[in-house]
């Protein structure tokens, strides 16, 4: 999966008939370690608060990945536009690479078209059309919806535009969220069936904990997808607190905020008293095994969380980036965990080797 990111957030330059909204973008993988190597059409638009374009068809560019492009400046002239108070810039791939739906992430619903890899759309913060001031500097928005007409929800995830990878959407979290949000009848081959996970998610009054929540996409998807919940608690290090506070605010969440919250949880420290005192039904861990140096603390934390709770399930989503991550499985086995269920979700990559996201459901040793 590739992601369009703002290297320089949209800003006004010029005046009068020469006034333009200008930004600099890049197209990279989730960790930013490589740039898109394909030539792809890019669509740039400016929308009002209602999501409707104020300039008509927008403007098209070409990302020249075959020439080694690493950034692209985009601009839109703002003359003869519909007058509105606040605007956003929207940058998206054209054609089959366009991704803003959960089903597209999973490669389904394309009417037989081959999934060759996607590029996730990005939206800027709101900009005051009179003053040009950005209302939330340093942030960008991802919006994901579903093809399920009976449940036309949208999930809004804000991430930072800076270089920190910790506060961006990553592949495993996005794929796990897409799998959770997609109706069961659409999960056909080559997607795995995970009946234990589906059964666990269908239980009433669940207590759900997420470790290493980052921007919070997994837990926010769970909140919007599950009909009955007791609570969802997102945890991460202090540097993720600001983005989690933003994403869980009522204005962004459009949901009952009393059921979801976040707090700091450092895997190298004892469990906070409220976490230790709660009987957790499901513990989610996505994109957290890439650094083998912290994996022992992660596994020890998981052991403390489920201690004495044989019915608890730990759901792990990961993209194996290097062999050193395999230490996680050995440590989980030593801690008494067994894999109750597993499956792999294909993740094609434009002009790259196809990848996969593996989903594991762990439980404590024994039956069940």
TrEMBL record:
GO molecular function annotations of the record: S-adenosylmethionine-dependent methyltransferase activity
A GO term from the CC aspect: cytosol
PANTHER family xref list: HEPATOCELLULAR CARCINOMA-ASSOCIATED ANTIGEN, PROTEIN-LYSINE METHYLTRANSFERASE C42C1.13
Protein name listed in UniProt: Uncharacterized protein
Taxon lineage: Eukaryota, Fungi, Dikarya, Ascomycota, Pezizomycotina
């Amino acid at each position: 999966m590739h992601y369009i990111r703002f290297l320089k957030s949209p800003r006004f330059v010029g005046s009068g008939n020469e006034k333009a909204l200008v930004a600099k973008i890049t197209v990279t993988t989730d960790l930013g370690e490589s740039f898109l190597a394909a030539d792809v059409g890019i669509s740039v638009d400016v929308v009002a608060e209602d999501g409707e374009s104020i300039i008509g068809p927008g403007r098209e560019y070409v990302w020249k990945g075959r020439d080694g492009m690493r950034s692209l400046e985009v601009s839109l002239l703002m003359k003869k536009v519909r007058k509105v108070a606040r605007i956003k810039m929207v940058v998206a791939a054209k054609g089959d690479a366009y991704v803003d739906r959960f089903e597209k992430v999973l490669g389904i619903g394309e009417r037989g078209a081959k999934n060759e890899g996607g590029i996730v759309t990005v939206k800027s913060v709101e900009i005051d059309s009179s003053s040009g001031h950005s209302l939330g500097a340093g942030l960008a928005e991802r919006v994901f919806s579903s093809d399920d007409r009976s449940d036309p929800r949208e999930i809004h995830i804000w991430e930072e535009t800076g270089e920190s990878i910790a506060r961006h959407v990553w592949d495993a979290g996005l794929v796990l969220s897409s799998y959770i949000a997609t109706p069961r009848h659409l999960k056909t081959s080559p997607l795995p069936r995970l009946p234990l996970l589906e059964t666990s998610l269908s239980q009433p009054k669940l207590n759900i904990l997420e470790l290493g929540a980052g921007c919070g996409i997994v837990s926010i998807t769970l909140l919007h997808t599950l009909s009955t919940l007791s609570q969802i608690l997102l945890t991460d290090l202090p540097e993720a607190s600001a983005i989690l506070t933003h994403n869980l605010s009522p204005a962004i969440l459009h949901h009952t905020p009393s059921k979801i919250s976040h707090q700091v949880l450092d895997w190298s420290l004892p469990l906070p008293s409220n976490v230790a005192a709660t009987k957790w039904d499901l513990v989610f861990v996505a994109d957290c095994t890439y650094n083998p140096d912290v994996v022992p603390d992660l596994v020890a934390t998981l052991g403390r969380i489920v201690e004495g709770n044989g019915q608890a399930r730990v759901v792990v989503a990961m993209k194996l980036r290097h062999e050193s991550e395999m230490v996680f499985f050995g440590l989980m086995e030593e801690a008494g965990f067994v894999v109750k269920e597993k499956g792999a979700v294909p993740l094609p990559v434009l002009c790259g080797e196809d990848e996969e996201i593996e989903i594991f459901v762990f439980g404590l040793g024994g039956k069940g």
